Amino acid sequence: MKITVLGSGSWGTALSMLLCDNGHQVTLWSRHEAKARQMTESRCNPLLPQRQLPQSLTITAGLECLSGADLIVFAAPSFAVRDTARLAAPYLAAGTPLVSVSKGIEKETHLRLSQIIEEETKDICPIVVLSGPSHAEEVSLRQPTGCVAACQDKTMAELVQNTFMNEYFRVYTSPDMVGVEICGAMKNVVALCCGISDGMGHGDNTKALLLTRSMLEMTRLGHAMGGTALTFSGLAGMGDLIVTCTSMHSRNRRAGILIGQGKSPQQAVEEIGEVVEGYYAAQSVKELSGSLHMELPICDAVYDVLYHGADPQDMVGRLMTRERKEEVGWY
Ligand SMILES: NC(=O)c1ccc[n+]([C@@H]2O[C@H](COP(=O)([O-])OP(=O)(O)OC[C@H]3O[C@@H](n4cnc5c(N)ncnc54)[C@H](O)[C@@H]3O)[C@@H](O)[C@H]2O)c1
Question: In this structure, are 27 and 55 located in the same domain?
Answer without folding.
Answer: yes
